Amino acid sequence: MTSQVSSPAEQADDADEAGEAVVGEQRAAAGAKGVRRLDRVVIRFAGDSGDGMQLTGDRFTSETASFGNDLSTLPNFPAEIRAPAGTLPGVSSFQLHFADHDILTPGDAPNVLVAMNPAALKANIGDLPRGAELIVNTDEFTKRAMQKVGYAASPLEDGSLDGYHLHPVPLTTLTVEALKEFDLSRKEAERSKNMFALGLLSWMYHRPTEGTEKFLTTKFAKKPEIARANIAAFRAGWNFGETTEDFAVSYEIAPAVTAFPVGTYRNISGNLALAYGLVAASVQADLPLFLGSYPITPASDILHELSRHKNFGVRTFQAEDEIAGIGAALGAAFGGSLAVTTTSGPGVALKSETIGLAVSLELPLIVVDIQRGGPSTGLPTKTEQADLLQAMYGRNGEAPVPIVAPKTPADCFDAALEAARIALTYRTPVFLLSDGYLANGSEPWRVPEVTELPDLGVRFAQGPNHTLADGTEVFWPYKRDGRTLARPWAVPGTPGLEHRIGGIEKQDGTGNISYDPANHDFMVRTRQAKVDGIEVPDIEVDDPDRARTLVLGWGSTYGPVTAAVRRLRADGEAVAQAHLRHLNPFPGNLGAVLRAYDKVVIPEMNLGQLATLVRAKYLVDAHSYNQVNGMPFKAEQLATALKEAIDG
Fold first, then answer.
1. Which of 36, 97, 395, 629 measures 20 to 30 Å from 498, CA to CA?
2. Are 249 and 36 in contact (CB under 8 A)?
3. 251-261 burial, b if ≥16 CB within 10 A, otherwise e?
4. Average pLDDT of each block of 10 consecutive residues along the chain (648 residues)?
């Protein structure tokens, strides 16, 4: 998911040359077979969690990115570390939507399903529209395997799949046969069947092959025999597609040469973009980056990625639990680092006391919450947007925290920079609310120029900042900036700037312990005023037709909502769209925007948390459209709901 490609605009001149250079010879070999041109396709690989579906999807995605298509992905993992083989809970899938134009979602339904076993077929066939391509590994459809998932008779023979273009392929047998010259056991050879499937799909959709072969050589550099076997299986899959009579047509999807501005692009997942954004923020702030974290799905990849970047002054600390992770991060903030802690919803609950301490200490701290299904352990590998109210209010006392939410995988980079800007400028902990859909999904990302990144430079306190009545110059740790209300950031060890920290209420200015009622009232209101006064951009409204209905979204609903709005407009409906990045504080013009429309609809992957906040703050009768099934919205589903709202 990390292959680099040149600008799609630049590919306008050399797409044919580059594409033909990679696949021309193989396409010529296809000779007599037909080639059909498509503008888009959705492919889903599905199999047992040990079948390598995520790797297969990653490789197909990387080659698709290098070819220049726009794309969006949806990996779907089992919650169990290793569910029993061949069972429904153990099914792993990877969906990829790619096109010759700008797209926003991984697709509502697959046009092609590759099912590696009966469980994969049963778990996914309900999403497959009639007439779609269905490639099935017939070797796995044994009586025992089918009984395990409730098939009384073989679906390959009972007529239940007659509505699909069924391609029965003995993937396991063909793979083992292709690798018979290698010194591998049958079990070792069977493991390469995912590469056979990848080769077949690469032939069907004219994907480049050189990148995958290079990847396999590198991945198995210490096991060259395994590398050669996987490459042989991959080539065998390609050759099978080329020679078999069952696949009479292959497909072309041209590069998306007009979808993006000129630049250098790469495919990137949300967690990877977020990690890169944090590194960029530390460089722009000229501060060391410290991550104090405890592994938790789906946030762990950020810890894994940041641990690779010690050359940028990044320090990662894998703590023994969530509390220790944020405690170490807050200590690093006190010591002058750009401090981050990463987690998911259950971890936020454990970190809440220390987040409140960070509010009291008024130190910059980025709390990354990659939301997942809850409550409690909930659905560890599924997505949800149900932590908004927890981020807003989930602490004792009045402890306001700014909240930033990215809208796409690539936008996680910019959201990380924005969270760092707010934390450093206003001396406050900041929530960054991503979710599993963004974290694991991927899309093309234009690599920004360094000159485009914001200046996040900070000034540490260097000496006294207050003069007492008797003329003595002293350092007051809670003397505030007149514009931002931020207190000075004094690095421990700076001579003369010694000061006390802790969770007990501070006296304004001096930072001494204070139990005075009036002082507490003042400090509570001041901390709230600091968050309320954070400068955030006005919300922008996309309303070309002067609509009466506004769709308001936040976070990862951006793609499905925008796709739904496009469908409605194509059908002649007038609908406006706005999307929130800043959830605390809200943009200053949000109230006026909401009151400008007769109807406001808020789609959320929760039971109406943003709608609750909007209705309470602006007294607007916002209508919720909610989903909490662990999956992102589908564009058609949203378009239908929005049409009903417009007509209602």
1. 395
2. yes
3. bebbbbbebbe
4. 41 37 42 85 96 96 95 93 88 97 96 98 97 97 96 95 97 97 94 97 96 96 95 97 93 91 94 98 98 97 98 97 98 98 98 98 98 96 98 98 98 98 98 98 96 97 96 97 97 92 95 97 98 98 97 98 98 98 98 98 98 98 97 97 94
